[in-house]
Amino acid sequence: MSQHTAPSRPSRHYTPIDQLLLGVDTGLRTLFGQPAITERPNPSRAVAEGKLSDSERQLAGRLMRINHAGEVAAQGLYQGQALTAKLPQVRQQMERAAQEENDHLDWCERRAKILGTHVSHLNPAWYVGSLAIGALAGLTGDKWSLGFVAETEKQVVRHLDEHLAQLPEHDTKSRAILEQMKTDEGRHATVAIEAGGTELPYPVKKLMGLMSTVMTRTAFWV
Ligand SMILES: [Fe+2]
Ligand SMILES: [Fe+2]
Fold it and tell me: How far is CA 179 from CA 9, 116, 173, 174, in A?
């Protein structure tokens, strides 16, 4: 896969058709191609490969497949929201956050493949479902929409903590990736809260948690 970094896009007016085509392009890159990553190095390059048994390697591969599916869903949420939310003051930060999600997507995919496994066959379903949820969240207005981003990111941080605890101890490379992702997701949550994101009602948070449980359990196997 060739690395390619997102060009800085000059601000210009896009017609609805332009936006639709850009959206389709982003979706296809997320699912089947090379998404536009940032300038940051892959954190796993900074550490040596640990020694893993076959069963450890299989477990780590499955965990990284789940994380990859989660990042596909994150892309769907961000892209869906971008279609409907205004967010004029924070658009730049949101675009940067979406690009950092592309880094996560890229790092997880490479790692899952090195560990000898495939990415989730259900990724198109996670993407389309999340795109719809993101678009709905965007329609509810900026404070709820940003609250939704903040809650998603907080749930991802808790999930990454669980995965860091489950990863084989010597899988230093996967660990380095998840640690950097955790730092990034925490920052994304803070940006959304500082931009005016409001706390979501408990049933909504609960529903989001249930959906991510379905996704993580399924992606472990397929
Ligand atoms: Fe992420
Ligand atoms: Fe994030």
Answer: 29, 21, 10, 9
Full-model pTM: 0.85
CB 43 within 8 A of CB 179: yes
Q: For residue 67, report the distance from its CA to the centre of ligand 1, in Å.
A: 8
Q: Name the nearest CA neighbour of 145 among 92, 63, 64, 87.
A: 87
Domain residue spans of the chain: 53-221
| pLDDT tens per residue, range 133-187 | 888 888 888 888 889 899 999 999 999 999 999 999 999 999 999 999 999 999 9
Nearest-ligand number for the alpha carbon of 102 = 1
CA 163/CA 126 separation, integer angstroms: 20
- Measure 37 CA to ligand 1 centroid, in angstroms: 12
**Which CATH code is given to the segment(s) 53-221?**
1.20.1260.10
- Ligand 2 geometric centre to CA of 184 (Å): 6
